[in-house]
Design a protein that fits this description.
Number of helices: 15
Number of strands: 15
Strand content: 5-15%
Structural class: alpha/beta
Shape: globular
Number of domains: 3
Order of helices and strands: HHHHHHHHEEHEEHEEEHEEHEHEEEEEHH
Distance between the termini: 35 Å
Largest sheet: 7 strands, mixed
Radius of gyration: 24 Å
Length: about 500
């Protein structure tokens, strides 16, 4: 039940208290369990949580002519694998706390509860970090995102989403001690959690975020174009041509911009096939004095590699290398096929994609507009905090292009947008986000929504966006401080359990 309700903590519901309550139930269930039982409790928690929160992934398969049975099976397999991470947490935690069951003496039970207060938050965050790193990583539904609408969001510029998640986990651990530790120890633990929340609220009230960044020039006039091209029709030739005309027309109807942003694959062709269109777009950009960033497919003749890209267009001949950003972090089994030689025949039989894009270089020449560098990302890349911060460079603005039409009217696009907002908050930059069907938006450096376009409508957003300079602590050090802190909590928990002491007791 606790795992199955966890999805309510994330967008569009944003009930941070659910994340605290759900984790507290899991922590309490692990506290008195054997390692084997804790493993299965963790797996069931994860299966229920990921199943309820990620069912919408099956929605994307309808656009690949994959049957409902295969789509459900693929999604269930993903959920089952992701559930292994909470299972790992349960097994490792119970291994430390073993011997604290009901048959143990009160002293043993108290020391186990005291150890758990330190161990649980550290272990949970380290396991989430593993989930976001191993096998190219999957960061969806990490608890830090549940804190975006809470006072705990103030910790994001300091330590990223994992710092917010650690504060959520500490709060959950303090409530898990109720009835398991001495009352005064529980009061101390809950008090420590209250200080975390109060500290976050104080930082938001004092606007400490403004200490890290500062204006760096005149505001840029930005135009975000949402074409709303149906996903099931997007790749048919008549619709592709109509989409090009639509984006060009909408841009021409709103003059005066410095930067125009079109979504991922807004140009649904390889660049070499639409040279005349790109030259015409460049002529329009030169005439009106703006830079166009457009999602497109590109091909490197030297390596024979295709890319999911963003092209920078400012003049008739500008749509040539190095005017491209190539997506670096590809979606496994969609854009990138692991073990392709073995998987491709199976994929073709099942109806799954069997070809791969190439990954862009880790370091690429930054795209620029109005004299400022732009930190560009494509779709899935925005879900990873440390790589996004690493790619910030000297950029004064974040730009993300995406196509969430794959997931229809489900929670998927809302969850994706929530993670994009976290990236803006972490590095203290405005985020310009253009998508095909929504959510296209302008996000403030504090993670708020400055403006957004209606979903599933053709729309244009216009805004004046100030470029910013300066680095937040997270932009400088990324995840390392929080990972070290989480590891330190594990060491403290281990030592407390080994010593049989209760340091949180006055």
């Amino acid at each position: 039940m606790a795992g199955g309700l966890m999805f309510l903590a994330f967008s569009p519901w944003n009930l941070a208290a659910v994340a605290v309550a759900s984790l507290a139930v899991l922590f309490r269930a692990v506290l008195r369990a054997s390692p084997r039982r804790a493993f299965w409790r963790g797996w069931l928690f994860g299966a229920a949580g990921f199943g309820a929160g990620l069912w919408w992934i099956a929605e994307s398969f309808q656009y690949r002519d994959i049957g409902l049975g295969a789509a459900a099976a693929a999604t269930a397999l993903l959920v089952a694998v992701l559930a292994l991470y909470p299972a790992l947490f349960g097994w490792a935690s119970a291994g430390l706390l073993r011997g604290a069951g009901p048959q143990s003496g009160s002293g043993s039970g108290s020391s186990a509860a005291a150890a758990a207060f330190w161990w649980f938050p550290g272990a949970w965050i380290l396991v989430e970090w593993l989930r976001g790193t191993l096998f190219s990583g999957f960061t969806w539904l990490q608890v830090g995102y549940a804190g975006l609408e809470s006072p705990l969001a103030a910790y994001a510029p300091l330590g990223g989403s994992y710092a917010v998640g650690l504060a959520v986990a500490v709060t959950a651990a303090s409530f898990a001690l109720v009835g398991a530790a001495r009352p005064r120890a529980v009061m101390c633990a809950v008090g420590a959690s209250a200080l975390l929340w109060a500290g976050g609220a104080a930082m938001i009230a004092l606007d400490t975020h403004a200490r890290w960044t500062r204006p760096a020039g005149d505001p840029m006039r930005v135009l975000i174009v949402q074409g709303n091209v149906p996903q099931d029709e997007k790749w048919s030739e008549p619709v592709r041509r109509a989409a090009l005309d639509r984006y060009a027309r909408l841009t021409a109807e709103h003059p005066g911009a410095d930067l125009v942003v079109w979504p991922e694959t807004a140009v649904p062709y390889f660049a070499a096939r639409v040279r005349p269109f790109l030259r015409a777009a460049g002529a329009a950009a030169a005439r009106e004095g703006y830079v166009l960033l457009a999602g497109i497919l590109s091909f490197d003749p030297a390596s024979g590699s295709p890319y999911n890209s963003v092209v920078r267009i400012s003049s008739p001949g500008s749509a040539d290398a190095p005017s491209y950003y190539h997506k670096r972090h590809l979606v496994p089994f969609s854009e990138r096929i692991p073990l392709r030689a073995a998987w491709a025949p199976v994929a073709r039989w099942l109806g799954f994609p069997a070809e791969s894009f190439a990954s862009g270089a880790e370091r690429q020449i930054p795209l620029r507009a109005a004299g400022r560098e732009l930190a560009v990302s494509i779709c899935y890349e925005i879900t990873f905090g440390a790589p996004s911060a690493r790619g910030l460079g000297d950029a004064g603005l974040l730009v993300n292009v995406s196509n969430d039409a794959w997931f229809g009217d489900t929670a998927g696009p809302h969850q994706h947008f929530q993670m994009a907002r976290m990236r803006a908050l972490e590095v203290g930059r405005w985020l310009v986000r253009a998508t095909n069907t929504g959510i296209s938006a302008l996000v403030t450096p504090r993670g708020g929504v400055g403006a957004s376009a209606p979903r599933f409508e053709t729309a244009v957003l216009e805004a004046a966006v100030p470029p910013l300079a300066g680095r937040t602590p997270y932009a400088r050090w990324r995840d390392w401080p929080v990972l070290v802190l989480a590891a330190l909590l594990l060491v403290i928990g281990w030592r407390v359990r080994r010593a049989g002491a209760d340091p949180v007791r006055p």
